[in-house]
Amino acid sequence: MNNQFRKALLEVCKDRLTERLHVFEEAMLRAQAFANEQEKSSAGDKYETSRAMAQLEREMNAAQAAEVRNELQFLMKIDPDLISSKIVVGSVVASARSCYFIGVGLNTINVNNTMVVALSARAPLSKALLGKQAGDVVYFNNMEIAIKAVY
Does residue 19 register a pLDDT over 70? Predict the structure, then answer.
């Protein structure tokens, strides 16, 4: 694994987050359109309830979209050329069990036919790994993680 791998990894993460952002933005638009389509009828409570539910859904999706935008901004600040022997935000960590990326939480992603667990920098496992280096062992949830390499 090298800087080209990290660049590809960051690109896959960016694509995933962009896709997620589009999903939330489209859901916001649908909820707003639904609220706008509700016609006032003699059953005023039904009208108000429908509009309120649509507005609530729109706000929920807006909050999710804002969170994804923040993750994208955070991701864009990671320097793919940064070389560190210690695990920092943006590091790829190889262990006997898995390959981890410390940056944004996207679960498992496939990068150049390598499965990588993308962890938020705020995730408990990330916090346990930060500052460690190759050869160190971390114990997390009754699991031993022997760090083979840091990229």
Answer: yes
Please give the DSSP secondary-structure letter assigned to residue 85: S
Both structure tokens of 141: 């949830």
List, in order, residues 6 or more apart from 92 with CB less than 8 Å away: 1, 5, 6, 9, 99, 100, 101, 116, 150, 151
Neighbours of 115 (CB within 10 A): 10
How many Cα atoms occupy the beta-carbon half-sphere of 98 within 13 Å? 16
**Cα separation, 35 vs 67, whole angstroms:** 23
What tens digit of pLDDT does each residue of 30-89 get?
A: 888 877 776 555 455 665 777 778 888 888 989 999 999 999 999 999 998 888 899 999
E runs forming strands in 51-125: 92-95, 99-103, 107-111, 114-120
State the Cα–Cα distance between residues 36 and 28, nearest whole angstrom: 12
